[in-house]
Please model this.
Amino acid sequence: MVIIMNKILSGSEITSFLPEKYSSMPLFCYELTDSTNRVAKDFSAKTPLPFLVVADSQTAGRGRLGRSFYSPASSGIYMSLTVGGFDALSDAVFVTSAAAVAVTDAIIKLVDKTPQIKWVNDVYLDGKKVCGILVESVPTDAGFAAVVGIGVNMTTADFPEDISDIAGSVKTDVPREKMIAEITANLLEICKNPDDKSFLEKYKSRSMLLGREITYKEGDTVSLATAIDIDYSGGLVIRDSSGNVRTLSSGDVTVRLK
Ligand code: BTN
Model:
């Protein structure tokens, strides 16, 4: 397998891989930026939706819960797709789940590997996290827009020590431009019909957690439970150690396999 290294991301190639109906979507392609989510949030008031911001590398990639996202040059995908027509935060879980399905569909199609989804926003391959998703909502003149930030380690070989145990790469020679276009088209197709939740069946079938013992952390409290379902708003349904069934929505919850 030939891994193409050090090729700067090309915006025109991304456009060329997009289905025609999406090819006139505004696209901002950076060699370097701090965070594509930050750029997208700044642009959301004055740019027609949907629009896409991508970067070859980021100096301050943002992750969930205030974490950072390691974003070295020419080896990963750092993209923020901003989509409109949402009510508010309640839709953030929907969009996050949709993004996880869009990414896993793209990996299955282009790389022919079998990724798994760790609720709510991580994609794993061969036991390592290869993708993280951070959805941020921004007010616009026409309701809320969702900035869907997606980071995929495509060929990254070395990770900082603090994440080297959990982070991995897709390890593929598929051009990043092609993968970005595939993820974008997949996500826009799901977002076209926000009332159609059928994509959640794919989400569930790829879930790492369902049927497994987990620990979940709310604030400083860590509890034990069994993950039993994903509900139609994307919440994780659990049975706690007292046998009570309740639903976790993404918020500040972190979940680990036991
Ligand atoms: C996570 O794993 O907690 C989420 C990581 C999300 C990273 C992506 S990279 C593109 C976009 N821009 C950012 O600053 N973050 C997201």
Residues 35-37, 58, 61-64, 67, 69, 78-80, 132-134, 149-151 surround biotin (CB under 6 Å). The chain is about 25% helix and 35% strand. The first strand starts at residue 27 and ends at 33. Confidence is low (pLDDT under 50) at residues 1-5.
